[in-house]
Design a protein that fits this description.
The chain is of the alpha/beta class and 285 residues long. The protein has a single domain, classed as 3-Layer(aba) Sandwich (Rossmann fold). An eight-stranded mixed β-sheet has the order 8-7-6-9-10-12-11-13, sandwiched between helices. A five-stranded antiparallel β-sheet has the order 1-2-3-4-5, covered by helices on one side.
Amino acid sequence: MGRRRGADRVVEPVDTGQAELVPDPDRPGSWTLLLDGAPQSHVDLTDPTHLEFEYVRRLAAAIDLVAPAGAALRVLHLGGGALTLPRYVQATRPGSTQRVSEVDGALVELVRRVLPWPADPRLRVRVADARATLTGTREASYDLVVADVFAGARTPAHLTSAEYAAEVARVLRPGGSYLANIADGPPLRHARAQVATVRTVLPEACLVGDAAVLRGRRYGNLVLVASRVAPPVPELTRRAAGDWFPGRVLAGAELDRFAGGAPVVRDADATDSTPPPPGIFSVRR
């Protein structure tokens, strides 16, 4: 068992660092997962549709809009954390088949023990590297691939390349979508390169985020939505504008300008994503 300190807070070593599960003082039954001090997930065990982190709400909005409401989907989640989005899909799209690939086996067991998810034979959690999972997956198997993978608050290099993006495209059905959480800050070299790289195989795309982040004024999260078919830009724009923390959507010519001149990343020259500025993460203790 993990060490417990005050108010049932759980602190426990896992394979990728030190995990903390911190109760949310404002929402009974809700918890924040941190890894080495960086917030990774927020889960409301009583209401899986409550999404505390703004980038997660943007990912959820894309999930809501890429198919008719309530329709069951086949979803591959790269990165598990506390399973916030798998729980959300379970609640909003009953009957969906979901596979979660999480590299940290000790973290999976901690979440399973302290924040158990509802039993569902259609939701499978496997301990595996995200890229290895893609490589071992059949062609055209999924409607959605959702990537939210961080190690030390950075996306690993092997999940940023054109070869990786080609594997994502291979496992998507023809009308399927790729959703990715991209964290970056000024001058947004990583985010621009990711847009350019993913669009080599999934050319129809948009980017959702806070205006200050999109303009390169501060570090933050951007959500990339990419497909072989046009994403639901007008609906995503309305959802982003109406959020608790309003966001913007870049698409079309605006996205072209955003990614203009950015290099396509290859395995041979891939690097981990931009590290966050020191002291950016904090959570109520």
